[in-house]
Task: structure prediction
Amino acid sequence: MTDVLDRPSVKTYRQLIGGESVEAAGGETLDIENPANGQVIASVPASGAEDVDRAVNAAAKAFESWKTTTPQDRSLILLKIADSLEERADELGRLESQNAGKPVGAAIDEMTTCVDLFRFFAGAARVPEGLAATE
Result:
């Protein structure tokens, strides 16, 4: 009898276009492997030109309302993103470790930098003159 390793179930993800979770237009998926061990860690949409067009059109539509938001609104949205990243830093760092094949500790530590960047740009959003651009 041959021993078989128990493999965790692989989660299949969808793409977010226009606020909706959708599959690739062609219906195909790609397996994502951990480069450190070759294990499949996820399945994602194999997006093509039609998906890019859908995403670009959705972004153009969203920009119509986004362009009228105030610096305060933009700043608050970026701060919410930073807070969400900070709350899930351990989980996201572990996912990044699997995705990139890097040490778990290093990937978790990178989340701090990510959070800091969102907070920096939240502050910069309130300075439309560009005075913060030298950083």
Remarks:
- The mean pLDDT is 90.
- Residues 86 and 115 are 6 Å apart (CA to CA).
